[in-house]
Specification:
single chain, alpha/beta, Arc Repressor Mutant, subunit A, D-Maltodextrin-Binding Protein, domain 2, 3 domains, two-stranded antiparallel ribbon, 13 strands, elongated
Length: 309
C-alpha cells in the first residue's frame, strides 16, 4: 500500500463513484480503477462493492477508510507545515564569498533575502576558496559563492557566470596595450598571493602551460585592496578579474589588459555541501542568490562577466 492509493481510496468512498473521484483528483477513470485493484491486491480482500449505481465500501473497506483518512489528513497537515516553513525561511543561513565577489553581491543578496525571509538570521563571511571548501565540509557555512576550484568533490554546484582575468598595471604602463599574451607574463614583476590562493595557482598553471617562469616581485596575502595599492605605488603588476579594479580603471588610476593566448577566465559558482543535510529552503535561497547575481550582471554591475545557462 502507498499513500497515493490510500488517498485515492478515501476519495472514491467519499464520492461513491470511481468516475467522480477521478474527476476530483484530476485523473482518469482507468487510472483510479487500477489503483483500487492494486490496493485490493495488497490488502488481499475486496474493499469495494461495485454496481451500476457506484461503489460502496465493504466491512474491510470501512476499516481501511479510517486509516486512509488518517494518512490523507497527515499528509495534508505535513504540506501545510512545510509550506509555512517555506514562507518563514530557515532560522539561520551562513553565506560565504571571496572578497571580490562579496563586495559585488553581498549588498543586493542581503536585501533580497531579508525581504523574502525577514525572520531568518543571515550571516555573511569572507574567505579564500580553500577556506570555503573546508567550511562547507565542516558545516560552518551553508552556501559559498566563489571561483570554482579545480576539484569540487562533495559539492552541489551551480555555475552562474564566467569572467575574464586581466593583467593589472600602473597607469603609466601604456606599453601593455589592451591585450597581453600569457607567454609574456614572465617579463613583468608580479604581485601575487602565496600558494594555495586561487590566483597564485592560476598564474602558476598558466606559466607552466606557456613554458615560462613567473617573476614574483612581491607576495601579498592581504586583501585585494592592499594588492591594488601596491600596484598603484609602482611595486609591480598583478592579475585580477576586471570587476575587482573597474572603479580604479574608470578613474584612470590603474590600467588593465585582457590576458590572451589562451584567453584566461574563471567561473563563479554557488555551492553547498552534498555531504550534510541541506538547510530548510536552501533551494529557495540559492534561487534568490542566482537571481540577484543575474540582475547585477545584466545591469552592468559585474564588468567582464558573462552569464552561463
Amino acid at each position: 500500500m502507498n499513500s497515493d492509493d490510500l488517498k485515492c481510496f478515501a476519495r472514491v468512498v467519499h464520492c461513491g463513484s470511481i468516475s467522480r473521484a477521478a474527476l476530483e483528483l484530476g485523473s482518469d477513470q482507468s487510472t483510479v480503477s487500477r489503483q483500487m485493484a492494486r490496493l485490493e491486491a495488497a490488502a488481499q480482500t475486496r474493499l469495494l462493492h461495485r454496481s451500476g449505481r457506484g461503489v460502496l465500501p465493504t466491512d474491510a473497506g470501512l476499516t481501511l477508510l479510517d486509516y486512509a483518512s488518517q494518512v490523507a489528513n497527515t499528509l495534508d497537515e505535513a504540506r501545510r507545515v512545510i509550506h509555512s516553513f517555506s514562507e518563514q525561511g530557515p532560522t539561520q543561513v551562513v553565506i560565504a564569498a571571496q572578497p571580490t565577489i562579496a563586495r559585488t553581491v553581498f549588498g543586493p543578496i542581503s536585501k533580497a533575502l531579508k525581504a523574502q525571509f525577514p525572520k531568518t538570521k543571515l550571516r555573511f563571511v569572507e574567505g579564500l576558496g580553500t577556506h570555503m571548501l573546508s567550511w562547507l565540509a565542516a558545516g560552518d557555512i551553508d552556501i559559498a559563492v566563489f571561483y570554482l576550484p579545480t576539484h569540487a568533490h562533495g559539492l552541489k554546484v551551480d555555475v552562474v557566470l564566467r569572467e575574464d582575468v586581466r593583467l593589472v598595471a600602473p597607469p603609466d604602463h601604456t606599453h601593455i596595450g589592451s591585450e597581453f599574451s600569457v607567454r609574456h607574463l614572465g617579463e613583468v614583476p608580479l604581485i601575487l598571493p602565496s600558494t594555495p590562493h586561487g590566483l597564485r595557482l592560476l598564474a602558476e598553471s598558466l606559466a607552466e602551460k606557456a613554458g615560462i617562469t613567473l617573476n614574483v616581485a612581491l607576495e601579498c596575502d592581504a586583501s585585494t585592496s592592499v594588492t591594488k595599492r601596491m600596484v598603484l605605488a609602482g611595486s609591480g603588476c598583478t592579475i585580477l578579474p576586471l570587476a575587482a579594479v573597474a572603479e580604479e580603471v574608470a578613474q584612470g588610476r590603474l590600467r588593465t589588459a585582457r590576458l590572451v593566448g589562451p584567453e584566461v577566465t574563471r567561473e563563479v559558482a554557488i555551492a553547498s555541501s552534498s555531504n550534510r543535510p541541506a538547510v530548510l529552503e536552501l533551494w529557495g535561497i540559492t534561487r534568490i542568490i542566482r537571481q540577484e547575481i543575474t540582475a547585477i550582471v545584466n545591469s552592468g554591475g559585474w564588468p567582464g562577466a558573462q552569464l552561463l545557462d
